[in-house]
Amino acid sequence: MTHTLRVTTVTDAARARVAAARAAAAYEVPPLERARLATALSARLRQCLAEGGTWTVVLGTRAPAREGNAGTLHVTVAPARDTQDDGEPPWRMSVTCPEAGTPPDPEVPDDTDLLAEALLGADEDTAAALGKLAEQEELVAFHREELHQTNQGVLALHADLDTAWRAQREAFAAERAARTEAEEARRRLRFLADASALLTTSLNHEEILRRLPDLLVPRYADRVDVWLFDHEDERLRSAPHPAAAVLAARTGRPQYAADHPGDLPGVDDQPPSALNPGRPLLCVPLLARRAPLGVLTLSPSGARWEPDDAVMLIELARRASVALDNARRFEHNRDIAETLQRALLTDLPTTPGLRLAARYLPATHGLNIGGDWYDAFRQPDGSLITVIGDVTGHGLHAAVMMSQLRTALRAYAVDGGSPGRLLTRLHVFLHHLQPDLFATAVIARFSPDDPTVTWAAAGHPPPVLRMPDGRVHVLDAKPGAMLGIPLRQEIEDHTVRLSPGATLALYTDGLVERRARGIDPGIDRLAAALEAFGPADLDTDLDGSADRILGPLLSDSERDDDVCLLLCHIDRAAGGEPDRVPAGADQLR
């Protein structure tokens, strides 16, 4: 069903709008849709009136395609057919309506009251639509507020996350700083431990002084000077020392001399040094057990030291002081022991038909001097006693015990007695004098006008005999035990016949013993050295022959023990019977 209305004037347009509103109301179109339809139609009609001419408004309905579905109300605005068509397409709008039956009469009486009533009805629809819109706005406002609250919550969450991130970043930075500080502390401790080990392994104070600059330059210092109070080079005695070093020596406290405060823990700040005002100086006293040794003066590699580095350097100076003090005390004791031992060594006597040559070398490694000794003296009956021995232990105590054994042996020899008897009496003497100290010894007695030598050994390496023809024998007949052990013993005598040109070698274990190889290979090397001499070498130069023996035997050793060698050579001019192999001797060559 369709209805057509002509619109030429404003009144026609108002009637068309009222008709459309009544039709929409009759078809029970929802108020919001009716308002939209009226608003859109009014706008289109105003446009048509502005263009002028005659227009037609067609109201029509379309029944639902299926039962239960809603119908459709169509409104079409187009130019009238009797007017010129400019080709503009018709304006159309459709709204859904529950009822699509016969529409009411769209004609609106030409009555102002009815028109006003219709307009009021349209306003009611508009009011309903506006009410609906108000509800929607309230709903939108509610959702907007809810969205605002959500946004505030998100912002608060972001702020919390940002705060947590900043706290985590600060925690990471603190952890990184702590790890870096721990690594630096570990590095300093490792350096201090390594440097201390390097300094304390040496017992030579000159070597310690050489090692200090190598340790510190250029990592912790640009220059290192060590001022030792009682060990200055003659060329440096007139050299001035920084005032801070002199103050450190007087007060025993570290001093820092620079044109800026050092702020170093445990260090006193002083004005810059007049000797070198442009460089900071750290002067650390080297303190020993009894008195200060000197002052260690350092200049930094950079502008200044870190406080922790300064603490480490002060601790290193303290440990260097201990190492220097230990080295100097060791050197002092070693010098005393060596001087005492050399003073106690005998000047060899001169005997017709028998020549002697002795050598003593102190140990070069450690305080291992004082135990080895040799002696040669005459007995009342004119025989010559030669002895070589070794006291266990080292240092001053061993040197003193060696002197007491030497004195006791000379006293016992006045009463006579064979080498075995003398060693037996020494054994008893040492056991009662020093129960926890032991010794080894070999005694050989040469009698005038007698071609034999009597010898006895107590725990000592066996004598080596070189015959005039060059053959070498080790006199390894049954020896006695060490002197001083808690055991009763009678040490036996042994005799061997000597011919002119024969040489008997007495020695201590420092000459032949090596820890990695034992003593037997060393005895073999000694025998080979004796065999290598020519027929006249030992006759013409016995002292030089002793040196030639020591050279090859000690060339492969750092000599961590002292060495004694005593050569007893029978002159060829003495005459005698042909050589015979000694009883109880091991023939090596």
Give the SSE layout.
Blueprint: E1 2-7, H1 10-26, H2 31-51, E2 55-62, E3 71-79, E4 91-97, H3 112-200, H4 205-216, E5 223-228, H5 243-251, E6 255-257, E7 268-270, E8 281-287, E9 292-299, H6 307-344, E10 354-361, E11 372-378, E12 384-391, H7 396-414, H8 419-433, E13 439-446, E14 452-458, E15 464-466, E16 472-474, E17 494-497, E18 503-507, H9 509-512, H10 520-531, H11 537-540, H12 542-554, E19 563-570, E20 586-587
Parallel strand pairs: 6-7
Antiparallel strand pairs: 1-2, 2-3, 3-4, 5-9, 6-8, 8-9, 10-19, 11-12, 12-13, 13-14, 14-17, 15-16, 15-18, 16-20, 18-19
Structural commentary:
Helices cover 43% and strands 20% of the residues. The protein has 589 residues and is α+β, with helices and mostly antiparallel strands. The strands form four sheets. It has a six-stranded antiparallel beta sheet. Strands 5-9-8-6-7 form a five-stranded mixed beta sheet, sandwiched between helices. A hairpin with a 5-residue loop joins strand 11 (372-378) and strand 12. The longest helix is centred in the first third of the chain and has 89 residues, at 112-200.
Number of strands: 20
Low-confidence stretches: none
Which structural class is indicated by helix and strand composition? Answer: alpha+beta
Our estimate of the beta-strand percent is 15-25%
**Residues in helices, as a percent range:** 40-55%
Strand order of the largest sheet: 10-19-18-15-16-20
Mean pLDDT: 83
Shape: rod-shaped
Largest sheet: 6 strands, antiparallel
Rg from Cα: 62 Å
List the total number of helices: 12
Distance between the termini: 152 Å
